[in-house]
Amino acid sequence: MFPYAEVKAAYEAECENLKVRCANAKVQLLQYKNKEGVFAREITWTNAKRVSAADFWALYGSEVPDLQVVAMRACAQSCAATASESEGTR
Fold it and tell me: Which pLDDT belongs to residue 56?
C-alpha cells in the first residue's frame, strides 16, 4: 500500500497536469475554429469530407496535441455509442 502523502502528491500533480492540458486544448480549439495552422489549408477540409473523424484527428491533430486527445476520445465514445445502438436493433 502506498502512503497517503505519496498518493496525494501524485493526485495533485496529475490534476495540475490536466489543468494545463485543458488550458492548452482551449487555445488549440480556437486554432481549429479560426482555421489557423494546419486547419488553414484547403486540403485539410477536403480530406475531412473523405475520412472518418478519428482518421481526421489522427492525420491533422499533431499540431494541436491536447485537442487531439479530446477529439479522439469523443470519436471513441461516438463509435462505442453507435456500436451499442446497433446491438440493440438486432
Answer: 93
